[in-house]
Amino acid sequence: MPKNSKVTQREQSHEHVTESVADLLAHEEPLDYKSSSLNVGGAAGKKVPQIEVPENDGRPAWNSKLQYILAQVGFSVGLGNVWRFPYLCQKNGGGAYLVPYFILLLIIGIPLFFLELAVGQKIRRGSIGVWNYVCPRLGGIGMSSLMVCGFVGLYYNVIIGWSIFYFFQSFQYPLPWSDCPIRKNGTLAIVEPECDKSSATTYFWYRQTLNTTSTIAESGGLNIKMTLSLLVAWIIVCLAVIKGIASSGKVMYFSSLFPYVVLFCFLVRGLMLKGSVDGIAHMFTPKLEKMLEPQVWREAATQVFFALGLGFGGVIAFSSYNKIDNNCHFDAVLVSVINFLTSILATLVVFAVLGFKANIMNEKCVVENAEKILGYLNSNVLSHDLIPPHVNFSHLTTSDYAEMYGVIKTVKEDSFPQLGLEPCVLEDELNKAVQGTGLAFIAFTEAMTHFPASPFWSVMFFFMLINLGLGSMIGTMTGITTPVLDAYKVQKELFTVCCCIIAFLCGLLFVQRSGNYFVTMFDDYSAGLPLTVVVILENLSVAWIYGTKRFMQDLEDMLGFRPYIIYFYLWKYVSPLCLIVLISATVIEMAISPPGYNAWVEELAQERFQSYPPWALAMCFALIVVAMLPLPVVFIARHFNLMSDGSNKLSVSYHKSMMKDISNLEEQDEARFILGGKPGEAPSSGPARKPFLTSGGNKPMDSLSPNICYGTSYQNAKGHTPDSSIQIY
To answer: How far apart are CA 229 and CA 421, in angstroms?
Structure first.
């Protein structure tokens, strides 16, 4: 080692070392690597080609920041914003529900979304690679994410298939679900009994679309129409993701923006409909007492959790194609706010249309019951004296009927139930909570049959659902393909096509006549609990194993500014605590709620709750176990060194950032001297803590959070703080 080396000077003078590794390397005089006597490749002075890392590490990148933001928005804004959020608003206190939702978005949603964006952008790998580097023993996090993405993708694309079927059925007038079909029996024509007992839209959904069986145990064979629709859905998804972000990024320009065009068109059209204001007023009327119920907060937390796509791996995968210095904090806040505002916009649209539908149904109720009253008057069951003099049956208003109904109920108190009259209160219609497929394929379609130019609006609505679903499916598929393509050198196009073919074949389970019940099963059990466990382990691995302070320093190096200190406490304490409470509440809810599904009973023409048979119950719990199985398996395998920790698969960009700061071999040797004890001795590769000498003497200062996961770290070598360590692979 040269005599002017600062390390050598301190060794000879026996002075206490007060600088950190970063200080020593920063002040060391640079030497020419090519002429250094430490060059093992040849004699001193002989020029040897220097290893160059290309500026482009070969990883695909987004064409623009807008394309990336649209991809994240398309993934996070999905069908749940349209048919789940409005239902939760209606169920949990209207406008009062927005308060717990917004609070939980701030303390859980944005911090954890920011965390996933940051680790993906820093490490530039998919979910499996990211968590292998942060903590190899918890590498099963990425594998569990991939499993959940697979389960969700299987049934989510079935919903897109249903939307495709309705989309093509909308190109006719009148719409096929406008009226009940007529059954001819010789010369006698009667309305289809199943439709007559329910409604035209309900009959079209359960009988003509799904042709559903009465129980999950009755397969009924494949539904050919739905099978073809599912095939079309998988072809569309495959074409969208076959080239990775090169193809999906372009698709996002349309699939992410078109739903907003449709929602604004529906909002404008809805506000011009009679009764739309009643629906919006009903939605935003706060029931403040609901805010005190724990169930409301649990459902708000769950919705925040799934609305942003946390734990699926899609967020990390999309972020991994960013530049290392991209401002992911701004992205996290922007996408979260857009997601929240989209939910509000969708809720306005849904309740404007449902308010119109409620008025239509209420007027229909008034007409039907007025005819009953006229019949009772003509048969002298009721006296004409009971009818207020200003009531005109040919132009009967809802207020006139309410007054007449009140008088008859008061006078005929004893015999009133036998009359079979209904109150026809608008509030009762508005309180009929509908969610999921019941909202999209029954309630909303029924409302659109009363629109002028109804086929146009139906086409627009279902095309919007297809695009919303496609954006989420692209993120889900990216969460599957990116980790695998990072880990294995396989042809992207071939692997994507194989995934889609396998998924289509597995998806045949959902296009049986009983397939709708399996969709419900997968929706209830394959994602909820496993994803919550995945996200809390993500949070703990960064905040408690890797170290929140070290992570904050990494973010400062990456972003050029230090994130707000509030994130430190949210990541370390608040978010883990909230997630533990959420997991506990989810487990309790699953324990006390009987596992079952709503089956459509053809004879009764209505839904009836049924418990799962034993084999289906076993399938439910198998979904949970299989999704979480990689977590303990990987932990045990790596604890006993039965599988590689993945540390030899660092991305080129990672090596690049390390090499920029360790510019010559002498500096590398000095780093080994300081960490190892003598020149040429490499630091221990085990999980030993890296000592830094304090200015007070020989007492070493430990790193802020000891890394029990083999010392694996994804931070850059530049800007080292006392709790950072140099890792050379």
So the answer is: 44
CB 487 within 8 A of CB 480: no
204 phi and psi, to 5 degrees? -65, -40
- Count the helix, strand and coil residues of the chain and give each as a percent rounded to the nearest 5: 65, 5, 35
Binding positions for Na(+): 74, 77, 81, 339, 468, 472
Annotated binding site: 74, 77, 81, 339, 468, 472
Rounded distance between C-alpha atoms, residue 569 and residue 573, angstroms: 6
Q: Is 608 helix (H, G, I), strand (E, B) or coil?
A: strand
pLDDT (mean) for 708-723: 39
Secondary structure (DSSP) of 247-311: HHHHHHHHHTTHHHHHHHHHHHHHHTSTTHHHHHHHHHS--GGGGG-HHHHHHHHHHHHHHTTTT
* 8 A C-beta contact, residue 132 and residue 645: yes
Alpha-carbon dihedral angle through residues 121, 126, 130, 131, given to the nearest 10 degrees: 140
Helix (H, G, I), strand (E, B) or coil at 600: strand
What is the amino acid identity at position 73?
V
Number of helices and strands in the chain (H, E): 34, 6
Which residue shows structure tokens 């960013």? Answer: 322
What are the residue ranges spanned by the domains of the chain? 71-360+433-644
The answer to whether residues 126 and 316 touch, using CB atoms and an 8 Å cutoff, is: yes
Whether the bond into 174 is cis, omega within 30 of 0: yes
Q: How far is CA 347 from the centre of its chain?
A: 18
- The phi, psi pair for 559, rounded to 5°, reads -90, -25
Q: For residue 512, what are the β-bridge partners?
A: 222
pLDDT for the residue numbered 230: 95
**C-alpha distances in angstroms, 420 versus 370, 409, 417, 443, 605?**
12, 11, 6, 25, 21
Query: How many other CB atoms are found less than 10 A from the CB of residue 594?
Result: 8
Residue 610 DSSP SS3: strand
Assign residue 642 a region (left: φ > 0; alpha: ψ between -120 and 50; beta: otherwise): alpha
**Helix orientation angle between 492-507 and 224-241, rounded to the nearest 10 degrees:** 160
Strand 188-191 versus strand 596-601 pairing type? unpaired
Closest CA to 693 of 12, 16, 14, 26: 16
Q: State residue 54's pLDDT score.
A: 36
Res 57: pLDDT: 58
Answer yes or no: is pLDDT of 333 > 90: yes
Q: What CA dihedral angle connects 517, 523, 528 and 530, to 10 degrees?
A: 90
CA 285 to CA 94: how far, in whole Å?
6
Q: Rounded to an integer, what distance in angstroms lies between the CA atom of residue 186 and that of residue 370? A: 34
Please, what sign has the CA dihedral across residues 293, 294, 295, 301?
Answer: positive
How high is the pLDDT of residue 147? 92
Cα distance between residue 469 and residue 77, in whole Å:
9
Contact 174, 243 (CB under 8 A): no
Instruction: Report how far Cα 652 is from the mean position of its chain's Cα atoms.
Output: 30
Residue-by-residue DSSP string for 130-169: HHHHH-GGGTHHHHHHHHHHHHHHHHHHHHHHHHHHHHHH
Give the predicted TM-score (pTM) of the model: 0.77
User: For every residue of 640-651, which 3-state class applies, written as one string?
Assistant: CCCCCCCCCCCC
Token pair belonging to 536: 């809390």
3-state secondary structure of 229: helix
Q: Quick one: what percent of the chain has pLDDT higher than 70?
A: 80
Q: From residue 583, give the alpha-carbon distance in Å to each of 111, 112, 289, 298.
A: 18, 16, 25, 10
- Biggest CA-to-CA distance, the chain: 120
Of the ranges 79-88, 195-204, 504-513, the best mean pLDDT one: 504-513
C-alpha to C-alpha distance for 623 and 528, rounded to whole angstroms? 11
Q: What are the distances in angstroms from CA 519 to CA 236, 363, 719? A: 20, 36, 50
What are the φ/ψ torsions at residue 183 (nearest 5 degrees)?
-100, 130
Architecture of the domain spanning 71-360+433-644: Up-down Bundle (1.20)
